[in-house]
Design a protein that fits this description.
Layout lengths: L1 H6 L8 H18 L6 E5 L2 E5 L2 H13 L13 E5 L5 H9 L4 E5 L3 H14 L3 E4 L2 E3 L3 E8 L21 E10 L8 E6 L5 H11 L5 E10 L8 H9 L3 E6 L15 E9 L1
Parallel strand pairs: 3-4, 3-9, 4-5, 6-8, 9-10
Antiparallel strand pairs: 1-2, 7-8, 10-12, 11-12
Helix pairs in contact: 2-3, 6-7
Amino acid sequence: MIKKMHSIFVGYGGTLRYRLLWDFLGLLIRNRWMHAQSSGVTSIAGKRMVYSNRASLYGMFVEIFIDQNYYLEQTDAPLVIIDCGSNIGMSLLYFATRAPQARITSFEPNPHTFGILMQNIDQNDFLVEAKNIGLGAFVGTATLNTDVYDMASQSASVTRHLESKGRPLQTVQIEIQKLSSYIVASVDILKLDIEWLEGEVVEDLVESGAIMHVKTMFIEYHYDGVHTVYPLGNLLSNLERSGFIYVIESPIQFPYTARTRPSYLSYKIVAWRI
């Protein structure tokens, strides 16, 4: 925990670092006495945020504000950011905190989650255009599967991978569009956390040429060999031939035992144009 607390001071200036430290301590206290599935309202970085799952809120805060998975230096530049898979808007809060003049387009397909997202956008006056659609390599509709006990689950997906974790599913029909149709000019940051369809979306961006408008990408790649089989090598090849270099962060700990079928893998990829 000391390491986590120290990381709050990396990259943050002024009173923000102390405010985030206070927020982190408050979330730790909630973790001691609040049920993991409880919902409510809390203050993060001085903004009022509605949330539907206490455990998920804590995880998102750590990933986004402490680990800074989408690290962005403080700037007043009018950046163009596309956030795919916004959930309740914690990533939007981070971008708005680091780049208050940024123009952000947000995609969130889950209707339940989108309702919470819009509350957080409206009450905090974020400069965000939010779209209640999913992204893929086709135009049409799809079935979204989410956790009955966490309707705004970060793991909601068009696959049924949550079943392998013993989670009962709730399904809803969602609209699917191609991300390439929304990228027609320069994009400073593209964040892709779209639960199992990131490979197909990047491939469509390459085939359409839209990827050439993108400067920096944050991608969460998923693979389990059953529900999603898009090869990591194909994704990386698409990035390379589009002029990107990249780094990959893996949660795998060593020693690692090889298995007959790959277990669930989730890699974080940061890619930028040379």
